[in-house]
Design goal:
By secondary structure, the chain is α+β, with helices and mostly antiparallel strands. It contains 4 helices and 5 strands. It starts with 8 loop residues before the first helix and ends in a 7-residue tail after the last helix.
Length: 132
């Protein structure tokens, strides 16, 4: 990792544009579009956009392009954010694992039922699996 350095005059302008005090921040990394800074006091890191704090991003829910003022923003609106949250909550509540069970296990379970045995009995009779 590169050692933090004092910001240049141009970097101080970028830091100030993000409503931060340049004298409290050190530059860790600079790329074409971003400036990574670290706080002198708290060691907190931030990634700043060089071009006025506005980035073009794509919404993770609806796919619409939007202007993001923060690099962590994932959704274009609160509506998309809440819809995605509800969708994830339903999957968690009703069990995603039940939608796509392992096909091989299901096939073996069907064969076991046809033979009049449980899954475990069928696996034991067929030789089991190598766990060594």
């Amino acid at each position: 990792m590169k050692q933090p350095s004092k910001p240049t005059r141009a970097q101080k302008v970028i830091i100030s544009a993000h409503k931060l005090r340049p004298e409290n921040w050190m530059v860790v990394y600079e790329s074409k579009d971003t400036l990574e800074v670290i706080s002198k006091k708290t060691s907190m890191r931030k990634v700043l956009n060089k071009w006025g704090g506005i980035m073009q991003k794509k919404c993770k829910y609806c796919g619409k392009e939007f202007d993001a003022t923060k690099s962590k923003r994932l959704y274009c609106s609160d509506k998309c954010k809440k819809s995605r949250w509800r969708e994830k909550d339903k999957k968690r509540q009703y069990g995603v694992h039940m939608e796509n069970p392992n096909a091989a296990v299901v096939d073996i379970a069907v064969k076991a039922r046809e033979a009049g045995m449980t899954y475990g009995q069928y696996i034991a009779k067929m030789g089991g699996t190598n766990h060594a």
